[in-house]
Amino acid sequence: MVPGAGKDRIGVRWAAAILVALIVCLAPLLLWGVPLRWFFVKSDDFVYLAWSRTAGSLREHLLSPYHGHVAPLYLLETHLLSRLAGSLEALPTVLALASYATLLAAIAATGHVVARESGRVAHGLAAMAGLGCSSVLGPTLLWYAAGQAMAAGAVVVAMLAALQSWRARGGWWRLGGGVFAAVVAPLIWSAGYAAGLVGLAYLWADGRREARRAAILVAAVTPVVAAVIWLNVGRDFAPASHVLSRQIGGVLAVDAVVAHSSQAFCEALLLNNLGLDAVTTPVQALLFMVALTVLWVWTRRPQAAADSASWPRPNPLEAAGGTMILTTFGLIFAARGTDAGYESLRGLGWYHAMAEMGAVLLAAGWCLGSPSSPPPRDLVPPTRREFLALALFVLVVLALQMPRAARVVFEYDEMAAPLDLDSPRRPVRHTAAELADQARAQRRVFAELDRLEHSARGDARRRAEARRSFEPAAVPGMPMALPGYEPADLLDLGVE
Q1: Which helix (H) or strand (E) holds 432?
Q2: Do residues 358 and 274 lie in contact, with contact meaning Cβ atoms separated by under 8 Å?
Q3: Which end of the chain is more exposed for a tag (fewer CB within 10 A), N or C?
Q4: Are 190 and 70 within 8 A, CB to CB?
Q5: Residue 452: how many CB atoms within 10 A of its CB?
Q6: Which are the contacts of 146, defined by CB distance < 8 A and separation ≥ 6?
C-alpha cells in the first residue's frame, strides 16, 4: 500500500460527508421552496411585530403573556430581525430566511447528537435527512409565529448535545451549557419546559452515578424558571382562580391528554412521516401505541439467559426522544386539548414540531440498540456502502413527502390537515400563482406603510394621522380578530 493512501481515502470520505450534509440541508427547499419564496406574514405574526419592532414596545411587552406563552427571547429575536430587515417591505424575506435557518439549526443539532451517540457520521446524516425532509415541520416552517415551536425544539436538542459532550469528556462548562439551554428553551415557547425532563431522561439512562446526579440538576432548572416567570407575570395571565382551575382541570383530564397524544403520535409522527393523511379514533391510536410498545420490548429482550430476569431499558437516545414526545404532547394537550376534541386540533401542525424531533431521536436510538456509555469520542466517516444507502434513503423520503408537502401548502393553507367546516380560518391559496399574488399584495401595502413611517418619523402629532391612514382590513394577512392592534402599531415612528 502506498504510504498515506489510507489517510487520503479517509479525507475523501470526510469531504464527501460534508458535501452530503450540505445537500441534506438544501433538500427541504424541494418541499418548501415556493412558499418560502412568497413568505406571508399573518395572524399572530402581527402581534409579535407590534410588540417588538421598536425598542420601546419591546421593553413594554418583553414579559407579556400571549395565548399562554411568555416568550421574551422570541420577542427579542423578532426585534433583531426587524432591525435587520430595515423596512416592513423587506421583513417577509428576512422572516423566511430566519425560519429556514431555524430548521437548519434543528437539523444540524439532531444529526450531531445521533452521530456522536453512535460514533458514525452516516447515522447522523440519516437523522438529518429524516427530520429535514419531513412534511411534519411544514406548518412550523411556513408561519413565523409557529416557528417558536421549532426554535424551542432546536434548543432542547442543543441541550442534549451539550450533555452528550459532558458524558463523553466531562467538564463543568459542558454541563453548564446544557443547563443554560434548559433555561433558554421555555423562554422561547412554553412547551420548552419539557427540556428539564428530557435532560433528566437522557442522563438517567446513562446509568452512571455522576450522570444521574447531573440529571437531577438539569431537571431542577424547569421548576425554577417556571417559578420566576410566574412570580413576574402570573397575575397577567388571568384571575388566579381561573388559571389554577384550568391547570388543575388539565392535569386531571388524563383521558383527553392520553387520547390526544396517542392520536397525534399515530397521525402526525407516523402516518404523516410516511406521506399519508388519515384520521384515527382514540381507541385505534391507543391500541397501536400498545402494539408499538410491545414490539419495542420484544426487540430489547435479553439475549443471554443470565439476563433473563432484567427489564429492558431504553438507551439515552430512546429515553430522551420518548420523553420529548410524551412531555411535549402532554404539556400542549393539558393546556389546549381538555376542552375540545382532537378534530379541532388536528390541523395545528406546530404542536407536532418538538415531538417530531423527539421521534427522530427515538427512532435513531431504537436502530442503534445499546450504544456505548459514555459515547465514543471519535467519529467514523461514512463508507461507500453507507453513502449509497444514504442516497437511497433521501430519495425515498422525498418521494414520500413531496406529495404531502404540496397538500400542506396548496390544500391545507399551511396547516397540518384540512380545517373543520366551523373554523373561522378558511383556506385562501390553491396555486403557486395565487400564493405569489397574495405575497406581492402584502408587500405593496408594507411598502406604503414604510412611506408613511418615513414621512411621520419623529413627529408625535402625526401618530394619530398614521393610525387613521390604514385599517386592519387594508393589510393582507392581518386579521380583524386582533382587538387593539392596528397597522400603525407596526410603524417605528421614532416616538417613545
Answers
A1: helix 432-456
A2: no
A3: N
A4: yes
A5: 20
A6: 139, 140, 349, 350, 353
Per-domain residue ranges for the chain? 5-38+90-300+312-410, 432-490
* Rounded Cα gap, residues 214 and 218, in angstroms: 6
The structure's pTM equals 0.91
CA distance 60 to 22: 41
Q: Give, as one character, the DSSP assignment of residue 146.
A: T
| Predicted confidence (pLDDT) per residue in 152-181, tens digit | 999 999 999 999 999 999 899 999 999 999
Nearest in space to 355 (alpha carbons), one of 331, 324, 384: 324
d(Cα 119, Cα 292) in Å, to the nearest integer? 27
Contact 160, 202 (CB under 8 A): yes
Q: What angle do helix axes 240-252 and 254-264 make, rounded to 10 degrees?
A: 70
Q: At what angle do helices 147-169 and 209-237 cross, to 10 degrees?
A: 160
Place of cell 493512501: 5
Residues of the chain below pLDDT 50: 1-2, 239-245, 247-252, 305-306, 309, 421, 424
Distances (CA, A) of 300 to 295, 314, 367, 399: 9, 8, 11, 31
Q: How many CA atoms lie within 13 A of 43 on its CB side?
A: 13
Find cell 384550568 and name the residue.
Answer: 246
Cβ 40 vs Cβ 442: under 8 Å: yes
Residue 343 is classified by DSSP as: G
Cα–Cα distance measured from residue 91 to residue 89, given in angstroms and rounded to the nearest whole number:
6
Task: Name the DSSP letter for residue 416.
Answer: S
Long-range pairs for 60-68 at CB < 8 Å and ≥24 separation? 63/229, 63/232, 63/233, 64/233, 64/236, 65/233, 65/236, 65/237, 68/190, 68/237, 68/335
| pLDDT of res. 458 | 62
The C-alpha cell of 206 is what?
A: 446513562
Tell me what pLDDT residue 470 has. Answer: 65
pLDDT at 489: 77
> For the chain, percent helix, then strand, then coil, each to nearest 5?
70, 0, 25
Round to whole Å and give the CA distance between 496 and 489. Answer: 12
SS3 29: helix
